[in-house]
Amino acid sequence: MAYETLLYEQRERIAYVTINRPDKLNALNRQVIEELSTCFEAIEGSDDVRAVILTGAGEKSFVAGADINELAVQTPVQGKETSQRGQRVLDLIENLGKPVIAAINGFALGGGCELAMACTLRIASENARLGQPEVKLGIVPGYAGTQRLPRLVGKGRALEIILSGEPVNAQEAYRIGLVNQVVALKDLIAAAETLARKIMVNAPLAVKFALEAVNHGVQVTQVEGEFLEATLFGLCCATADMREGTRAFLEKRPAKFVGK
């Protein structure tokens, strides 16, 4: 897959997606959003990819936000379309059915923070700063930041971050649950790979169904979530991986999952 704003590599069933606009601090413009959509649609349909690591080029920025040059000239209709376009792509990433790990190497602001929140898990380098500064530009978060941030850190903390427009550093992001780990910048990709491999040894369908249960469960009542969980549990019981996993456990050997 060839892209103008992304770098793509695949090794040992891990897809490495790098937003490659370091001169713009990897800011999201329309082309980046469209190429992310194309890239993740291909990943979704690939049996050769079991996990994704998403990062930004360089050592300063994961994604510093939206491209202000594009944003400044949008009409109300274009603004709504831009927001919905970004939301669709981030929804695709969140519901990919495969773990997507954000390796946050510096600034993750505005759309960059929203992109990171759409990922399954987040690892930040020690120099990372995350935030939603849109109110400083006279707008609100447009890529579902007002929805994902409260679900991750709680309403009160999310409102403080959104309404002040002030970013938080990596350690504070870890303290409030916005990121899962903080590591040295030089160890960032290795830490993401370690986490990806811990997930990849497990049954692919079970991972997919667990993601679905959590992602949809947080949006419905607990009763509805439990019904979804029971349904997905039943589906797991029909898989070859369930039979292999239980047999391997009883035989005290590593399981060999095939994703069926």
Strand order of the largest sheet: 1-2-3-5-7-10
Secondary-structure element string: EEHEEHHEEHEEHHEHEHHHH
DSSP helix count?
A: 11
How would you sum up the global shape? globular
Main sheet makeup: 6 strands, mixed
User: How large is the radius of gyration?
Assistant: 19 Å
Note poorly predicted spans.
none
Q: Oligomeric form of this entry?
A: single chain
> How helix-rich are the residues, as a percent range?
40-55%
Number of strands: 10
| Distance linking N and C termini | 27 Å
Structural class: alpha/beta
Q: What's the pLDDT, averaged over the residues?
A: 95
Which band does the percent of strand residues land in? 15-25%
Condensed summary:
This protein has 260 residues and is of the alpha/beta class. 38% of the residues are buried.
What does this protein look like?
- With about 260 residues, this protein is of the alpha/beta class.
- It has eleven helices and ten strands.
- Strand 1 (about 5-10) and strand 2 form a beta hairpin.
- The mean pLDDT is about 95.
